[in-house]
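INFO  loader      accepted 1 record
INFO  loader      residues=364
INFO  predictor   begin
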Amino acid sequence: MNLETKRAHFTSPLYLESGRILEPYDIVYETYGKLNDAKDNVVLICHALSGSHHAAGKYVGDRKAGWWDGLIGDGKAIDTSKYFVISSNVIGSCFGSTGPMSGQYPSNEPYRLKFPVVTIKDMVKAQMHLLSKLGIHKLEAIVGGSMGGMQALQFAVDYPNIAKSVIALATTYATRPWTIAFNKVAVEAIRRDPRFKNGNYDKDDFKEHGLDGLAIGRIAGHISYLSPHSMDEKFGRNYVPTDGLFELFGRYEVERYMEYNTSNFAKIFDPLSYLYIVKAINTFNLSRGYESLHDAISRIRADVHLISFKGDMLFFPEEMAHLAKMLKRNNQPHSYTEIDSDYGHDAFLVELDKFEDIIKGVLK
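INFO  predictor   done
INFO  writer      dumping tokens
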């Protein structure tokens, strides 16, 4: 698969949607496969909120493979024996690309809350600069789920000629109040944690014990990523065997699962990055900068393939169905599939067997 991690450094300014400038900045990205001489066998992968550039494969010492390893690799749906696959870490993240805990040039003092608010549009513009630096001007496809799907759609609207196909999974055209409300729990839990110190913490403060506010906020996220049915199937009403039923803080298995997963997450994910990326998700609106959503959608030249999941309670299937109706009305090439799933929003990361054939078909 020829897995490699690389860093691109940019000294030219990145003009942000807010009117501010990010300069200089870095983008960390991962590549798989081999770029052909024409540089036209490229598939770009866009990650979700908690994701990173590490989408597939393993490095020495890794216990887990990348977050979409089941889809990306030699002979898999996104075939790295045929395509050169790029997965980049978004600006604002904490996994190598420039974010709030990066040094603010010319000093090494972290930006912290001085880091500018970035949007999905800004993330996409930064990735366009990366592609240009690599001499890549045409993509076979852009693929992403959740926030990655937002990026894929933003690419299609802002840069109509960059990709032949766009595959967006479990996403939306504009973040709705329901999702913003879930995100508010995380934002307030982080801000009100005394150890957050209004962003004035040191980089390694949470490596050992994590930040409680982020862990609590992540519980709200997990609830929105799953579905009632998937929780019934996974946990039932099972009680932790070592806890007493009549102990006040005795736990059901679902509670123990939430505690374990969120406390680990809070040790590896920077809380400021979480706040900035959540802000980017909340402000996502495909029509911003255009006269209307119809005007934005009309700009698309790529074949658009939309995949939603029946049990998704974060970005409901009706949101992607609305996009599909607009594309159909405009006679723009597209497909829309609603996957029968009880898993919830995270189905795009888990139930790969239910949609990998669709991706194979697009990339045939």
